[in-house]
Design goal:
- By secondary structure, the protein is an alpha/beta fold.
- Among the domains are: about 305-380, Rossmann fold (3-Layer(aba) Sandwich); about 395-560, Rossmann fold.
- The protein contains 25 helices and 10 strands.
- It has helices at about 5-25, 30-45, 50-60, 65-75, 80-95, 100-110, 115-130, 130-145, 150-160, 165-180, 185-195, 200-215, 220-230, 235-245, 250-265, 270-275, 310-320, 320-330, 340-345, 375-380, 395-405, 425-430, 480-485, 500-505, 545-560; strands spanning about 305, 330-335, 355, 365-370, 410-415, 445-450, 470, 490-495, 510-515, 535-540.
- The strands form 2 sheets. Strands 7-6-5-8-9-10 form a 6-stranded parallel β-sheet, with helices on both faces. A 4-stranded parallel β-sheet has the order 3-2-1-4, covered by helices on one side.
- Helix 22 links the parallel strand 5 (about 410-415) and strand 6 (about 445-450).
- Helix 1 packs antiparallel against helix 2, helix 10 runs antiparallel to helix 11 and helix 21 (about 395-405) packs across helix 23 (about 480-485).
- It is elongated.
- It starts with a helix and ends with a helix.
Length: about 575
């Protein structure tokens, strides 16, 4: 033990180290400051403030585990040190030790129950634990305690956006950036919310604010590029994507986005290779087939697995290439496809066997290839050309069955579908409400046959008032049934969903209703499709203008019926 005199000498030395360390921090000499703080806590091990300041300096140096240990020593030395509990909670949360982090914030708030920053940190940990209700409550309490705390308003916006409450999230982000105009992440998330609300011009402005404040913000450059693309400013989008790649060369989403623009412009040669980046995207579901990727080499006597991916429409569109795969591989072909497509695909040329998604591939498979990688691979061997239609054929017995059912329906029979899958990220743009079909209601001689599966509640109620509308969707158990029904229709009229691909693959007369910026496969500024010769495309002239599309459809139908 120290004597009184010796203790005071040690204390003075420790204080000198502590104050010198504080000055070094102000000068930005963090490593030297760490050395002095360590000397201070060595001399006075129970000095909570010195442990705390050492922890803060280690945080600035990115040394999280060491910082957490310092905060722990600070709280052990001084259990009512609320800010040390909060900082320890932040460090533990960043380290992924979420339950410990939660406990630290609660301990700190026991000491200091009116601390807005503490509730904000508590909300962050609860959000990381996916406890959205509790996180929202914590953020709301933080905002109530301190309406000027920009971070709390921002984080409340984040949790509201996760809940889909975009109008209120927008208000929170607006509050955050008004309180802290230099808050780049708040501008970025504000942009994301504006995109969800369909306010693209405002979103572009928000993203531009974010990258102006933080030029190294690759994700903000990427989302700015996406929004410019959806706005139709394709050249500007490409330039913005280039900015993102300069910061993050392996940014898969950006490579993919560039590929989509090139495909949209019909530049297949450079678009298909970039489309392969989809497998490295964070939001793209991986496949689980261990076999090596087929590179187009012959596999005589072996078995090749071709597996469907993405949506039903994608599968219908790209199974056209299976005969070419068969010819090139000279092997046994196993097709893995979803059950609703199995019966439809049973007549496909080039398929020798079947597999079920999620199940094990037949053990004899020596290679695998995703269905939508076929255009890229086959393009190395053959010039890209449309496949002769039809390449799908419904079973004769199904055709006969629906023929009998439809025999009683008189007039010009039009199959209609107005929605795609609600899980599709662009469904809000490509799908339409049934009210828009009222434009066609009074065209004489037409009968509208509902072939829409998965309609929203109330959709059909808004159509059943038509004396010329009949809902046949309940009779369609799979795509083979839909195909057999289409044989007896005079026209299929649908938004961009699997129904239109099926009509195209069958070679049936079909009209496609497209949003202003369509999916890449429908290209730009044309009323036909190289994928499905004979299909007619009706495009929005401005974003969201389904009324204009339906007026054009009405004119087209009236002209067709006159002929």
């Amino acid at each position: 033990m120290y004597g009184d005199l010796e203790f005071h000498q040690v204390l003075r030395r420790a204080e000198a180290c502590f104050h010198r360390a504080n000055q070094l921090v102000e000068l930005g000499r963090l490593e030297a400051a760490v050395a002095d703080y360590r000397q201070a806590v060595t001399l006075v091990p129970q000095w909570a403030e010195a442990h705390f300041n050492l922890g803060n300096t280690l945080i600035a140096l990115g040394q999280l585990p060491e910082a957490e240990a310092c905060y722990r020593q600070a709280t052990e030395a001084k259990p009512d040190f609320a800010v040390a509990w909060f900082n320890r909670g932040h460090a533990l949360g960043t380290l992924g030790r979420l339950e410990e982090s939660l406990n630290c914030f609660l301990r700190g708030l026991d000491v200091q129950p009116e601390d807005a920053g503490g509730f904000n940190g508590l909300g962050n940990t609860l959000l990381d634990l996916n406890r959205l209700d509790a996180a929202e409550a914590a953020y709301r309490h933080a905002v109530a305690l301190d309406p000027t705390l920009a971070e709390a308003a921002y984080n409340l916006g984040r949790v509201l956006a996760l809940r889909g409450a975009f109008p209120e999230a927008r208000t929170c982000y607006q509050t955050a950036v008004s309180l802290k105009p230099g808050f780049a992440q708040a501008h970025y998330n504000h942009g994301n919310t504006l995109v969800h609300l369909g306010l693209l011009e405002e979103a572009v402005h928000a993203y531009r604010q974010a990258v102006a404040l933080w030029p190294g913000y690759a994700e903000a450059w990427y989302n700015l590029g996406n929004t410019l693309r959806e706005s139709g400013a394709l050249d500007a989008a490409l330039a913005t994507y280039d900015q993102a790649l300069a910061l993050k060369p392996d940014f898969a989403e950006v490579h993919f986005g560039i590929g989509v623009i090139r495909l949209l412009r019909g530049d297949f040669a450079s678009g298909w290779p970039l489309y392969e980046w989809r497998w490295k995207k964070q939001d793209f579901p991986p496949h689980h087939h261990p076999q090596p990727l087929w590179q187009g080499q012959p596999l005589p006597g072996a078995t090749l697995l071709v597996h469907c991916e993405q949506g039903f429409g994608d599968a219908i569109q790209f199974v056209r290439y299976l005969p070419q795969v068969k010819a090139l591989a000279r092997s046994h072909i196993i097709l893995e496809c979803p059950q609703p497509l199995r019966r439809l695909f049973s007549t496909l040329a080039g398929v020798d066997g079947w597999a079920t998604p999620g199940g094990a591939a037949p053990p004899a498979c020596v290679a695998q290839i995703p269905l939508m990688s076929l255009p890229h691979l086959l393009g190395r061997h053959w010039t890209f050309l449309p496949v002769e239609l039809p390449y799908l054929t419904p079973a004769p017995e199904d055709v006969a069955r629906f023929g009998k059912l439809l025999a009683r329906v008189e007039g010009f029979k039009i199959g209609i579908a107005w929605r795609g899958s609600p899980d599709h990220k662009n469904d809000g743009n490509r799908s339409m409400d049934p009210e828009w079909w009222q434009t066609l209601r009074e065209i004489p001689g037409c009968r509208f046959i509902g072939i829409q599966k998965g309609a929203r509640e109330g959709d059909r109620d808004r159509l059943t008032g038509w004396d010329r509308f009949e809902d046949w969707s309940g009779l369609l158990t799979d795509f083979a049934d839909t195909a057999a029904l289409m044989v007896h229709l005079d026209l299929v009229l649908a938004v961009d969903t699997s129904v239109i691909h099926l009509a195209g693959a069958l070679g049936r007369p079909s009209w496609l209703l497209l949003p202003w910026i369509p999916d890449w496969r429908w290209l730009l500024d044309r009323s036909d499709s190289p994928w499905y010769p004979g299909m007619r495309l009706f495009r929005q002239k401005t974003r969201g203008d389904w009324g204009g599309v339906m007026e054009e459809v009405k004119k087209g139908l009236e002209s067709m019926l006159k002929k």
